[in-house]
């Protein structure tokens, strides 16, 4: 499928809106602001945070050794917007994979996210681009929230408990593979 500029702009607007970001008239991404907050209130901290019913098995391959993970799939705009907000825990080797239609620069933030996370940006061919360690900012305003970005276009973003990447030796260049079919996006 050929992506037209108009289709690309429409896609960016939808994706940026899901992440609480805006698009400037020149196509650049705006910083988060109060108007982009569509998140749940703090009183919903114990509720399930996504409608994710799909889990996938995948692995990070470092020096020929596999680290198997179970990932909830966030492949719709609503699921990507909600992510791991309000979660109080994650089982070991369990996280979430954000799936996008195409590889593009990705930016995440920790709004309403209670757990420190490793944010692992992955290219379309399954190569880890970069890993960011993200800390919760419970009392930060939208303008104060730190942003975590991919160094290159990413098709997948995996979030795991912070420290996972360091413990397992996951860094730029590590391979990431799905066991079975790769998840695709939903509209």
Automatic annotation (TrEMBL):
Domain of life: Archaea
Pfam families assigned to the protein according to its UniProt record, in alphabetical order: DUF192 (PF02643)
Chain positions covered by the region annotation Disordered: 28-53
Protein name: DUF192 domain-containing protein
Organism of this sequence: Haladaptatus litoreus
